[in-house]
Amino acid sequence: MKDMATALADSQHGKLLRILLVEDNSVDAHLVSGLLRNSPQATECIHTRNLNEALVRISDEEMDVILLDLNLGDSSGYETFDRVRRAAPGTAILVLSGSDDEELANRTVREGGQDYLVKGSFDGKLLLRAIRYAVERKMSEEALRKSEATVRAIFENSLDAIVIFDERGRFVEANEAAAALLAAPRSDLIGSTIHKFAGEGFDREMERMRISQSGRGQFNVRRPDGTERMVDYCFRANILPGRHLGVMRDITEQQRLEDQLRVSQKMEAVGRLAGSVAHDFNNILGVISGHAELLELRGQDESVRNKATKILTATTKASSLTKQLLAFGRKQVVAPTLLNLADVIRDISSMITCLMGPETQIAILSSKAAGTVYADQGQMEQVLLNLATNAHEAMPFGGTLTITLDKADGSDLPEQVPPGSYVHLSVGDTGTGIDPAVQERIFDPFFTTKKTGSGLGLSTVAGIVKQAGGYVVVESAPQKGTKFSVYLPRVAGAPERRVKPAGNGMTNVRGAETILLVDDEEELSNAAAEYLQECGYKVLKARAADEAMEVARHFEDRISLLVTDIVMPGGSGRVLVEQMKEARPETGVLVISGHADDAVHQHGFLATTAFLQKPFTLQSLGVKIRSILDGHKPA
Amino acid sequence: MQLLSELVQIFVAEYPELLLQIDAAVRDGNADGLRKASHKLKGSLLQFSAPMASHAAADLENLAAGNFLKNATSSVERVKMEINSLVRLLEAMVSSGEARANKAGEI
Questions:
Q1: Chain B contact present for A71, CB below 8 A
Q2: How would you classify residue A448: left for phi > 0, otherwise alpha for psi between -120 and 50, otherwise beta?
Q3: HSE on the CB side for A351, CA within 13 Å?
Q4: Touching check for A238 and chain B: CB below 8 Å?
Q5: Is the CB of residue B56 less than 8 Å from the CB of residue B79?
Q6: Interface pTM (ipTM) of the complex?
């Protein structure tokens, strides 16, 4: 259909106005045509004598106005009007009737007719004016109808809750999104008051809005089931007299994710700080332990040697703490080895005891016979710590923490674990238990039920265990407790031996080769150099990569081994290693580092290079160096 | 005057047929036919602003709508009489109008 605004504009500019005259009386038809023909308005009058003919013309052509006689040969009365109206809903209809029937006139006008003119009661001027008004009114009605249809469609399809309420806060309108947000059917909402759904902050915000008359903010709505949703809302008072608009967006989930992101960013920052502190602390520990070792080796006085041993014991404990910090900061080198988890449990049990506090009993049933797994020791410690921490938090009034280690296969295995031979580590508590509805989500990253939780503890456990080829199974009963079972594949072979100090004997670490030692930590470097010189080596020292290459360039003899840190000012150890391999392919390499930086991980650097993690004892350095020089594989 | 002349011509050509339809409807007791024909006649008469004739046609239409055909004969006669008067009047109006127009044209 032609747009009504265009029709009016056309008529106003004297353009052609298309009129369909539906009239079976020749006299009447001729009179109307004649009146229009003689008017100043340019019109095209198309005459049809019955309804069916009119309906065909309406479907084929655009008309601006229909002048309609109601009593035709094939239709009469209101039915004529109704059928034409349905066929041309956007066209102005002006009824021309021989009956001065007020009831019929009212009905047609009420149902969309623009006017009702009684034959014999109008002249050309009046008819033209009636036609013009009819076009204008229809245009306005159509514009309003389209606007209403658009607004209604937006209202009904909006993802935001839209409500209109009166002075008393009673809902006059509410869309589907509002019904979903407030968890109540629309039919229940209409007539009930917005105050019924007031949650935290609602009254305060309403008062603010009452004063300001418009604006936006946040409050909580309380649903009939008692749950609350946080909403971002926009308010405008008196969009119509006594009618107020409220638009609400559910931001509960968004808020939760933002909170989690903030927590995880904080955790990340804390982790970075912890890793950084641990790295620097490791270097200091290295200096202390290095010199203590030298004292222990060289000390003439028994009492001095004993004190040196005590210093070494203290540095070993301190070193285990930095290891935890590195694990927390995820800066530790992930190096799977053959491990017996019984050793891991034993090593970390003192820390777990400290975590639990006096109100919690700790039972450890661990057997070395459980077997060996191939995993990273630091990560296994983290798994134990995270599970123990969770258990502790599930027992706010104390209880019993039980850690067990045994082997499992065949019928011992729960259905979630595929058949195989496993080492089974379990951490159980006698705490509050986990709600069955929550159990499905506990391993999801950032999922937490604690106010201060990061939601990373169990997801980290799940990630580590999965990486090690294992499975985590949880069993829980409300108010009875929870047991996490970790199943890791058993592997054949014995756990790798830790490098033990070789006592005072230096024969197993002695050598006469030339070693280039590169570390920006001068004190650490000095202690190591002194020790290696004691062992018989010739030691060249440098504090940076470029300095090391300079030293190598000016040294004419063979350099058997490059011992270098990774992160140093003036060029990374990794670049130094590459340059050295090119310049002196015969030179072996040993990398020492306090933490595995990204470059190490990303390039698989350690897979082909011998590595010793700081802090280390000088003797372990000696053993490692001797092992590389004797042609053993990098470890 | 041109339009009036055309309307009178059309009316004069068509009304005898409408009167025949009215007579037949009264004779056959066809109330609906009588209502439609008298309504159509009334419409034309209204356009000529002929109150006596259009009232007579309206009365006939009302009788038909109420199915009072027994009383219709006298009403039909009244309609015919009013139309005869009207047609004579209209033709006289048209003739005098044309004469004035011709005279004006001669001047």
A1: yes
A2: beta
A3: 20
A4: no
A5: yes
A6: 0.81
